[in-house]
Automatic annotation (TrEMBL):
The protein's name: DNA/RNA-binding domain-containing protein
GO biological process assignments: nuclear-transcribed mRNA catabolic process, nonsense-mediated decay
Organism: Aspergillus ruber (strain CBS 135680)
GO cellular component: telomerase holoenzyme complex
Gene Ontology MF annotations: telomerase RNA binding; telomeric DNA binding
Transmembrane region(s): none
Origin superkingdom: Eukaryota
Length: 246
């Protein structure tokens, strides 16, 4: 008597015979190394183009928002591929250290995200069609990296907080949306502060978000100033806080 499990096994065997499965081979160190270096070469070229556009005359980019959007999206995709390849489970320690060696998280934030957001912010309302779309692209990309490249967890969390605070800042007309993004930014900064309680910079971010609660602002600014790693601008921020009262 043939049982259901035996029948299922026979069916599976027949399927493998009819549709043979391709052989899988583990990725070798040399393959990973070649892939990472190829990705980096392409990334560097796109990054150079992005920097060139960011430094060009503003009048010359008025009609190129879609081109710039696509270019920066490609740059973010290249960064994503670089992080995934260099942090592959089969990668050597030398490959896994490449993102830190070449300051890739900082470069992605500076040239791939922040500079383009600033460019669009200064060109509002002409860039209004593209700014929200690019913001959500960048936010989702960082969230993906937070999930899949945890070695830079603190950096990704701060980037998400910075992006949420940035979105809050440009929501001038929609107060409800502004509050939502302020709460999201606060969530990420509190998460980072729990992981890195000695970072005064994060307390300074929280102080900015605490407006108009002056008492809470003063509390966070003070924590920022007396932290193990104090934020140097905190003293000036405290003076500005009391300036209307003097």
């Amino acid at each position: 008597v043939t049982g259901p499990e035996s029948t299922q096994a026979q069916d599976t065997e027949q399927l493998h015979w009819i549709f043979p499965q391709p052989e899988t081979h583990p990725t070798t160190e040399e393959q990973l190394k070649a892939e990472v270096h190829a990705i980096y070469a392409g990334l560097a070229l796109v990054e150079e183009r992005c920097i060139g556009h960011q430094q060009s005359d503003l009048a010359s980019i008025q009609d190129q928002w879609q081109v710039l959007f696509s270019l920066h999206r490609i740059l973010l995709d290249e960064h994503n591929d670089f992080f995934f390849a260099s942090q592959h489970p089969s990668a050597s320690l030398a490959l896994k250290q490449l993102p830190e060696k070449y300051a890739m998280p900082a470069r992605m934030w500076r040239y791939g995200i922040h500079s383009f957001l600033e460019l669009m912010r200064h060109q509002l309302p002409d860039s209004l069609e593209h700014l929200p779309s690019f913001f959500h692209l960048a936010y989702s990309m960082i969230a993906l990296l937070l999930e899949n490249v945890p070695v830079f967890e603190s950096i990704w969390i701060e980037c998400l907080g910075d992006l949420a605070r940035y979105r809050m800042a440009i929501e001038d007309s929609d107060l409800a949306n502004r509050k939502i993004w302020a709460d999201i930014a606060r969530y990420w900064y509190h998460k980072l502060a729990d992981k890195n309680p000695n970072l005064g910079r994060i307390q300074h971010h929280l102080a900015v978000l605490a407006w108009p609660d002056m008492l809470q602002q003063l509390f966070n600014y003070t924590k920022s100033l007396v932290s193990v790693c104090p934020f140097p601008n905190a003293g000036e921020s405290i003076l500005l806080l009391f300036d209307p009262l003097l």
